Amino acid sequence: MNFRHRRMEEPEINLIPFIDVLLVVLIFLMLSTTYSRYSELQITLPVADAERLKERPGEILVSVTAEGRYLINHKAIEGRSVELLTAELSAAATAGAGSDSVVILSADALAAHQSVINVLDAARRASLPRLTFATQTNSGTR
C-alpha cells in the first residue's frame, strides 16, 4: 500500500463558460425589455364625421357622468355596483335585440376610469360582446 501524500492540485477556475452564460442572459434581457417613453408620446385622437344614425332597437346607450353615475337608455341607475349594472344591461338587452345588442358607451371626459371599466365588466358579464364608444366631432358629440 502506498500511503504517501499526494500533492494537492490547485483548483482552476475557468471563467470562459461563466462569461458565455452572462452574455446570453444579457442578450435575453435586452431583447425582452421594452423601452417606452410616455412623456414624448404625442397623440392626436381621431375624429369621426359619419352621419348620426337613428336609434335602432338593438342599441343600448350607456352614459357615465363626471360624478360616476350611470344612465342606461336615458334612465338613471340608482347605485354604482357592477352587479346592478349587469342586471340593468341584461334587462335592456332582453327588451332590445338580445345578445346581438350593441352597447354604446358615452363617458364624460372627467369620469373616473374605474367607472368606464365597471361598464365594460358589466357588459361582459351580461354576455354583450358588441361594444362601441361614442365619438366627438368638432361641433359636438355623436
From TrEMBL:
Keywords for the protein's UniProt record, in alphabetical order: Cell membrane, Membrane, Protein transport, Transmembrane, Transmembrane helix, Transport
Signal peptide: none
Membrane topology category: Single-pass membrane protein; Single-pass type II membrane protein
Primary location group: membrane
UniProt keyword Transferase present: no
Family: Belongs to the ExbD/TolR family.
Name by which UniProt lists this protein: Biopolymer transporter ExbD
Record localization: Cell membrane
Source organism (scientific name): Pseudaquabacterium terrae
Pfam short name (any one): ExbD
Transmembrane feature ranges: 12-31
Record Gene3D superfamilies: 3.30.420.270
